[in-house]
Amino acid sequence: MTDANLTGSLWMVAAMAGFAVEDMFLKSAAATVPIGQVMIWFGLGGSLIFSALAISQGQSLFPHAVVERTMLVRNAFEIMGRLFFTLALVLTPLSSATAILQATPIVVVAGAALFFGEAVGWRRWTAILVGLSGVLVILRPGAESFAPLSLLAVLGMLGFAGRDLATRAAPKTLSGSVLGVWGFWMILIAGVGFSIWEGAALVWPTGVWLSLIGACMFGVVGYSSLTRAMRTGDVSTVTPFRYSRIFFGVCFGVLVFGEVLEPQMLLGSAIIVASGLYILARGQR
């Protein structure tokens, strides 16, 4: 592995660790503060940090490109992904929600073929179907142990996949900091909307400030590290390390929240990761 690929891979692992810690803090904060209000504070904090970064770099927070159709679509999918995945983090086991999220790259490849006309052969289409079957193994539809709330993670995963596809079509003039600002603004909007629907009384987050600050800081670290990872080394070498997030998610789920790992979840996770790695390798070939 070249120095650039090694550095990019380490940045990717750091990004996935940052996102996993963010998830842990959000789940902890939501045990005391209503979900919608957690999203409001999280979105507000993250947007302030990214706004400071963008302004320090001399960038406008409201360039004309942010009102183009691709950005509007991206914002809509960002709201969908953040809202439903946050609900999944709070209402379902962290380990299973993280495992289902790992199907995002698989859905992105399928979406790129359907909407962008990218060439995807029958082998990769087969791997896509196998990977999605791994999601079904985790969900276990039709079984007595099926939990309808686990579908929240599926909706969140689809939202993130749509956001990633829209990001590819978004104007290249928008920097990572500006995209980060608008991404966290969408979290804020989603939190306001869910708070209105939830109708919960306003709760001042006394006692969970550290969790909220930690979620904001590690979310920004994860986002920034991901940007660095994708700009360092070969994409085909760096991208597979995205699946390290499932390791961190499972560890936090077991050690922090006392979750019990079920065989179906482990099997489904293995299917998703193996399919994703094959799709990446086949695409590079």
Provide a compact summary of the structure:
This protein is mainly alpha-helical and 285 residues long.
Computed structural class: mainly alpha
Mean pLDDT reading: 88
Query: How would you sum up the major sheet?
Result: none
> What's the SSE pattern?
HHHHHHHHHHHH
Overall radius of gyration: 18 Å
Question: Which residue ranges are poorly predicted, with pLDDT under 50 across at least 5 consecutive positions?
Answer: none
Number of helices: 12
Indicate how many domains the architecture comprises: 1
Q: Let me know the number of strands.
A: 0
Terminal-residue CA separation: 18 Å
- Sheet-strand content, in percent, reads under 5%
Helix-residue proportion: over 70%
What would you call the shape? globular
Please give a structural write-up.
With 285 residues, this protein is mainly alpha-helical. It has one domain. The protein is 74% helix and 0% strand. Helix 4 runs parallel beside helix 12.
Task: Describe the protein's topology.
Elements: H1 3-29, H2 35-56, H3 69-91, H4 94-101, H5 104-115, H6 122-139, H7 151-169, H8 176-198, H9 209-230, H10 235-238, H11 244-255, H12 263-284
Helix pairs in contact: 1-9, 1-11, 2-8, 2-9, 3-4, 3-7, 3-8, 4-7, 4-11, 4-12, 5-6, 5-7, 6-12
Key features?
single chain; 285 residues; mainly alpha; 12 helices; globular
